[in-house]
Amino acid sequence: MVRVPKLTRADVAQAVRNPLLYIAERWTPSLRTVRRAAMSAVVMAVVIVVTGGAVRLTGSGLGCPTWPKCTDDSLTATSAMGFHGAIEFGNRMLTYVLCAAVGWAIIAARSAKPWRRGVTRLGWAQFWVVMGNAVLGGIVVLVGLNPYTVAAHFLLSTALLTIALVTWQRVREGDTAPRPLVGKAVSQLTWLLAVAAGLLIAVGTVVTGAGRHAGDSSDVHRIPIDWKMIAQLHADLAWVVVALTVALWFVLKAVDAPVGPLHRARDLFLILMAQGVIGYVQYFTDTPEVLVGTHMLGSCLVWIGVVRVLLSLRERPVADAPVPGPAAGQPEPVTAG
After folding, report:
1. Which of 12-21, 83-92, 151-160, 261-270 has the lowest mean pLDDT?
2. Second label for 271, Cα 20 to 30 Å away, from 2, 161, 206, 305?
3. Predicted confidence band at 4 (pLDDT cuts at 50, 70, 90)?
4. Is 318 exposed, middle or buried, given 0-12, 13-18 or 19+ CB atoms closer than 10 A?
5. Where are the alpha helices (DSSP H) in 180-226?
């Protein structure tokens, strides 16, 4: 039996006043634990996108017709609301799982020794993006699945995925100044690739907003634009991203770049090829729900590949001498409440 330490009034007061510091003084996670916590936030950022897509593709977007409660009289879905209510309410509940994953990442980062303020702040950035997107998700319901708000909801989820990936990468690095592994021209080409990929994803939300999967069986407003025309623009941008990825790989090979950037560019190319096949098949088969959902997952994987290419262009070696953690009275970064 492990003896449970007695809690004094001072301990309780400290835990209430600054729970993160209280936990950090009594728990030191391993580096593996911190990495797993950061990765859990990445995984949940992808899961919430895929399940959100499932809500739309099953026509359950208004399964819970109001927010923050499911109905005017019930906080949760009722049996009378059937399948659509269960799907929509289930996706709302997954937001709490996402919050738990981000919270675990914050606690693990804050409790690590030595304490790395920058990593903790990245965790808090994820938290505030999740809160903002939860409110935006409520607005999406209240405005009847307006396609512009749905697009903004997806793009903010992509921003969350970006921050989660950067957090995961920073956990695996040191705090020294970043050292570039390639020249400025290669870096500029990579940023051009990232901008093109961002435009590709943004135009993809317009394709969704103009397409046939409105998210509910009711008369949901769609973006008044020719769907085939915007889908063709989306495909053209996809080929631009593929061309830039191939060009980047050849440039990296020509300048004898380290294997890290080369492998990340290769991985991105393979993801793009798979995503392209899915995209063309869904276009010529009248966008079946399963393929559209798979394409949404592919969108997350494409963006992960792009961000990893960017992050592979520099390194931040771990410093030889560890930096001591903060004193008990040292002020905290921005916290909830």
Report:
1. 12-21
2. 206
3. low
4. exposed
5. 184-210
